[in-house]
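Risk mitigation, structural track. In case the binding assays with adenosine-5'-diphosphate fail to produce interpretable data, a predicted complex structure has been prepared as a fallback.
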Amino acid sequence: METRPNSIEDWPSRAWNLLSKLRDQSPLVQCITNFVSMDLMANTLLSAGASPAMIHSIEEIPDFTPHARSLCINVGTLSSDWLPAMKAAVVLANKFRKPWVLDPVAAGASGFRLNACLELVGMKPTVIRGNGSEIIALFKASLGASKGVDSSHESTDAMEAAKSLAQASGAIVAVSGAVDIITDGNRVVGAHNGVPMMQKITATGCAVTALIAAFVAVDPLHALEATASAFSIFGIAGELGMNMAKGPASLRMHLIDSLYSLDQVALLSHTKITSL
Ligand SMILES: Nc1ncnc2c1ncn2[C@@H]1O[C@H](COP(=O)(O)OP(=O)(O)O)[C@@H](O)[C@H]1O
Ligand SMILES: Cc1ncsc1CCOP(=O)(O)O
Ligand SMILES: [Mg+2]
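Fallback model:
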C-alpha cells in the first residue's frame, strides 16, 4: 500500500514508497564493478527487487547501456583496460539522461586510481558514495595514509569534505559509516541504521552503492532522498539479519533474506533518517 508522506521530512513513508516502486518497476541496473563485489552486489539488487547486470566489456556498452535505468561504476579492482569501458558507459548514461553512481573504492591508494576517480567525478555522477577516507581523498585530490579499501576515518570526519565535494562536483555525496551522511552541499541528512558487523563482510559498501543506483533509477529527480532511503533500508536489513546471525558469514545470508522480505510495518518502525 502506498503511504502519503506528510511532509518532506516523513522519511519512513518516503523510504517505503521508494522500495515499493523499486519492487514494482524492477529497474535494470548496469554494474561495472570489482571482482570481489559482483556476487553480493547482484544478490543485493535482486533481493531488493531490481534487475542487476554485470556487463563491462567495452564492445557491449553501446548496445546495452542505453537500456539500463541506471549505472553503477565501482573502481575496486581497477585496471587500465577497464577504465575506457567505464567512461564509455558514463558518456552514454549522460547522453540518455540515466542516473549513475560512482563508488571510489580506495581512491587514495594509488595515483592511477586517484586520477581515474577524479576523472570520473568530473563526468557528473548523480551520486558519489564512499567511506570517510575515500571521500577525504577525493576532496583533497591526494593520496592518503591508506588502509586500502577500508576506512581509517569516521563518516563524520568527512562531513566538510563531503559538502565541498558535492558543491564542486554537483553530485550528491554520501559517506558511509556508523552514521551514513548524505549531502547536496547545502542540506545534510544522516541515516542511522545498520550494525557494525556489516563492516566485517566484504563488499557491503559496494552493495549499498548499487542499491543507491537502483533507488535513483526509480526517483532520479530526488537523488538525495533516494540515497538516504537506500542506506536506511540496507541498514535495516542488517539490523534484522543480525537478530539471526552468528557472525559475518551468516549475517551476509540473513541480510539478503531480510532485504527480500522487508515489509511495511518493519520498515516504518525501523527507518531512522534525520537532518544533521
Ligand atoms: N559502525 C557501523 N554501524 C552500523 N552500520 C555500519 C557501520 N559501519 C558501516 N556500516 C554500514 O555498512 C555498510 C558499508 O559501509 P562501509 O563499511 O563504510 O563501506 P566500505 O565497505 O565502502 O568501507 C553501509 O551500509 C554502512 O551504513
Ligand atoms: C577487498 C577488495 N579489494 C578490492 S575491491 C574490494 C572490495 C571492497 O568492498 P567494500 O568497499 O564494499 O568494502
Ligand atoms: Mg568501499
